[in-house]
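STRUCTURE REQUEST FORM
Protein name: Schlafen AlbA-2 domain-containing protein
Source organism: Bradyrhizobium betae
Requested output: structure tokens
Priority: standard
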Amino acid sequence: MKPLQEWDEAFLDQHFVKGKIQESNALDYKDSRSLSKADTKELCKDTSAFANAGGGMIIYGITEDKHEPTGIDQGTDRTAITKEWIEDILTSNIRPKIEDLEIVMVPLPSKGPNQVAVVLRMAQATAMAPHQNEKDNKYYRRHNFKSEPMRDHEVRDAMRRSIAFGRKFGLAWNILVEVRRLRAAAAERYAMPGNGHVPRTTLIIGVSNDLRASGEAVIFLEKKDRKALSVLAEVDGYNSIIETVDQGQRENARLTEALKRKLYEIELRARDIANKLEAIIDSYE
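Status: completed
Returned output:
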């Protein structure tokens, strides 16, 4: 599908109307006249309902019959209903504010120079869920093509998911900082000359108490991302060798090719873990 910012009247007609894309729990068609300054309750209710469910899109300007698109209506006058006005209404009347929300005015030149279809696209609420419509102090969700009030257990479940998401993000960030430090330490030692003896302490890779104590925290991450602690075993194995190799040298040790290979493997593992943790953090943003 075209990027939302590139949509035009022809795309709305070809993709949605002629393509017979039916309404769903992720798509709602609305008459342009329902976007009115006289009554903003439905705008706030429907927008918050989508965010509280799985996210989705509302298109003001496409008519429908039994959930199937029938055409493009006369559109909205963009000089009367502006993007800024819609943003202000939603920001002022939905709590918490919906973070991931796009509002796009699609020109409808066949309907007039100022006429537009208005598209609202919102992602599923995560860290800020659920969103309350302050017009009536209710929580709504999209279900069976309608915006329905959420039941008590649904509101509680959404709040629990929100807390878990925020906790997961914080844990991912804390572990990422430590894993990056391990990766840098491994790379620094790998770059050291391997011929001469150097103080053992310069070869040892320190592991913070925070990372060692992250075992319980890791269970909040996805199963496929719970590799943060696996690198610790490799670091401990490397450190154990450094502490026992070249005993005749007492305080000194030599970085052998075998040890360099271990450092290389530690750096690769740490990089892989860091990439997975960064993906979690990016999903929050």
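Reviewer notes: The longest strand covers residues 115-122. The chain has a mean pLDDT of 88.
Form closed.
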